[in-house]
Task: inverse folding
């Protein structure tokens, strides 16, 4: 699933935003302006996701989901609420697309003849190195 596919579904009416004060350094502006934006999306209550997609999101994004099944994305890097809101929204779509993209199945392959020979040659070199380290009994 791509970001464009998710944007086409238009989740905007299911997203809720909350503004609060940013943490960290920044001087007077940080201490008096609510620029940190927190985006919340309730996966369980979403009408635009299928049951399989909800299960995949709850599994893959479990570290960002609270007990009420809300997916939370926070942005506080920009100096304005609007900037942080757009950043959080972009990040929301990227994380959703990454979680909903199925993993490629690995094709089982056999080692090539050259790779087998390299492995055996390396084993022989290591064995010879260890043989040279041993002390002889004739001394």
Result:
């Amino acid at each position: 699933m791509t970001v464009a596919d998710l944007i086409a579904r238009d989740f905007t009416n299911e997203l809720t935003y909350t503004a609060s004060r940013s943490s960290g350094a920044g001087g007077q502006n940080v201490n008096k302006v609510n620029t940190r934006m927190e985006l919340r999306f309730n996966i369980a209550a979403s009408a635009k996701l299928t049951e399989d997609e909800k299960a995949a999101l709850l599994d893959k994004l479990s570290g960002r989901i609270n007990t009420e099944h809300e997916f939370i994305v926070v942005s506080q890097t920009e100096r304005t609420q609007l900037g942080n809101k757009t950043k959080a929204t972009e990040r929301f779509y990227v994380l959703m697309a990454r979680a909903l993209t199925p993993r490629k199945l690995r094709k089982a392959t056999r080692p090539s003849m050259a790779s087998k020979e390299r492995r055996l040659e390396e084993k022989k070199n290591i064995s010879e190195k260890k043989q040279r380290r041993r002390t002889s009994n004739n001394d």
Q: What stands out?
A: The chain has a mean pLDDT of 88. The radius of gyration is 27 Å. The beta strands are 15-20, 36-42, 70-75.
